[in-house]
Write a structure and sequence with these properties.
about 180 residues; mainly alpha; 6 helices
Amino acid sequence: MFAQITVFIVDTVAGFLVFMLLTRFHFQWLRVPFRNPVGEFVLATTSWLVVPVRRVVPGLAGLDLPTLLLAWLVQALGLWTQAAIVGAEPGAGAIAAVAAVDLLRYSLYILVFAVLVQAVLSWVNPYTPLAPVFDAATRPFLRPLRRFVPLVGNVDLTPLILLVILQVFLMLVASLRAAAATV
């Protein structure tokens, strides 16, 4: 039981840090402004990790490579710690591969969350201060779909279509994760 509790705590802490680091990476990649409550929270929870690493690892073609590298390292360290707690001995290659696939999976979860929040805010209160944040995060993914899917009775169905597509990708990533675990 103690091992279960410890694995849960390690998974929760590592998962939180990885989600925050990935959110920071995606905000910079998608040019979502950080001058809002969500952006300020992300910066406050990740700057202590990212700023020192930026002195060593440069960005790459406008991408925040230090943040992405940190997310991968934290996820790999979390997986390794969980395996050590339960007594498993996976190889370094398997941990590295599963951590990389987990970053893709978590990125899809972040997008699913952003699409859901953006859709709800567009119905409930489209003028809330957080609406531009979620709109900026989802616009690059919804725009191509809006070219092909017309409004139906003044209702935009593209968030629903994107959620279905993302769910299919999540299924594919789950099988990719299972394959990566055997490396």
